[in-house]
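Practice problem 4.
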């Protein structure tokens, strides 16, 4: 009998399991993959996420894996530049973008060291119920016989297509249609740093260095362009750079060498999913997913994984009931993630509405406000404070924006 079973051992599941085991709870974690292994990802960890790795004693392992430090951000939205870097968060003055084959192994090994029992290549086929509560899982390790494990609570950290979510019938809410699709790969021969540029014709590209002396290079286009893109992905991938930033397009063709195949990523709609019930909870993409354009997936997985572990520990320690603890986890998660969710789904449209065009245009005229905006992107500045009407008044004043051009809220 376990206190907690965690299904899924990557960016959301491993922190939950590790943090609970460090507090003395008996934890089983299962995953259908084996480690080290790769996963589709932006690799981007914001300073707010890195601060959690630092608190858990794992950030040095990411750095020691020769993950490049990034200390300059180059954001351009339809000609509006935001260049610089966010103020430090918990002393962290850089961002890191580790490949998942590196990061996920660090996380799983940390869980093991904490005392978590880990079963790799384990596929969950069903949940075990008793009197309406989830009390365990059934599944197989490789081609072995079916096994059953029981626990006080089961955590689904098993991604978009969560088996745990499906078995408990967890419905979606606050759904916003996915606007785009992504192709990405890894290029050597480039010394670009971090770029995040949205151009006209609803196109975006991003690039940042990662492990192995390569840059992750990605493009996003709107869904209506998918059919054309699939006809010649290589040519269309390069054409996005030519359209958005011709000079970088030329450098990509002349200096860059693609080291791996292009990888497509057609992601689901943005959503929240009902993430708790009798004996179960969801975390990471299993319970909440948004467009990858802002790179907040892994950072939110860390933040929400820690939040869930705290609440489960309170329940297992007798401070509150498990049902109350899990309900509070979801309430706090939804409240704290709302600004990033709103900003991400707006940016994912690859257009700028009049409100964002006015605000970002004013912010870009001041390095002070640019730094604060980059701080919001990094997780160190509250979005609702930065975009509050009184604060926008100061931004517009500093930029000298005429009264008739000031917009204070989205239309």
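Answer key:
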């Amino acid at each position: 009998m376990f206190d907690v079973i965690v299904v899924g051992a990557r960016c959301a599941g491993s922190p939950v399991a590790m943090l609970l085991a460090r507090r003395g709870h008996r934890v089983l974690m299962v995953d259908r993959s084996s480690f080290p292994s790769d996963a589709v990802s932006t690799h981007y960890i914001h300073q707010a996420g890195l601060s959690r790795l630092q608190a858990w004693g794992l950030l040095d392992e990411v750095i020691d894996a020769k993950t490049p430090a990034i200390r300059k951000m180059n954001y351009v939205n339809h000609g509006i530049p935001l260049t610089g870097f966010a103020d430090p968060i918990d002393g962290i003055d850089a961002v890191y973008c580790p490949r998942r084959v590196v990061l996920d192994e660090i996380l799983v090994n940390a869980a093991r060291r904490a005392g978590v029992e880990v079963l790799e290549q384990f596929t969950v086929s069903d949940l075990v119920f008793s009197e309406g509560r989830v009390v365990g899982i059934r599944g197989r390790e490789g081609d072995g016989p079916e096994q059953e494990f029981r626990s006080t609570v089961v955590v689904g950290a098993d991604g978009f297509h969560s088996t745990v979510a499906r078995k408990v019938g967890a419905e979606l809410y606050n759904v916003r249609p996915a606007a785009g699709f992504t192709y990405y790969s890894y290029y050597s021969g480039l010394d670009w740093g971090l770029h995040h540029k949205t151009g006209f014709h609803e196109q975006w590209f991003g690039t940042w260095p990662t492990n192995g002396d390569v840059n992750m290079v990605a493009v996003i286009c709107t869904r209506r362009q998918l059919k054309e893109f699939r006809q010649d992905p290589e040519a269309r991938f390069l054409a996005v750079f030519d359209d958005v930033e011709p000079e970088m397009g030329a450098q990509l063709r002349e200096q860059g060498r693609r080291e791996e195949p292009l990888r497509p990523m057609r992601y689901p709609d943005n959503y929240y999913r009902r993430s708790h019930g009798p004996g179960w909870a969801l975390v990471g993409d299993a319970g909440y997913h948004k467009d990858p354009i802002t790179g907040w997936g892994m950072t939110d997985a860390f933040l929400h994984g820690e939040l869930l572990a705290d609440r489960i520990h309170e329940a297992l320690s007798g401070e509150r009931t498990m049902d109350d603890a899990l309900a509070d986890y979801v309430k706090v998660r939804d409240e704290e993630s709302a600004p990033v969710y709103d900003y991400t789904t707006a940016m994912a449209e690859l257009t700028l509405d009049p409100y964002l065009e006015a605000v970002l245009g004013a912010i870009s005229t001041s390095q002070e406000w640019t730094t604060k905006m980059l701080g919001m992107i990094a997780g160190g500045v509250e979005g609702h404070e930065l975009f509050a009407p009184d604060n926008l008044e100061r931004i517009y004043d500093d930029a000298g924006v005429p009264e008739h051009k000031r917009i204070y809220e989205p239309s």
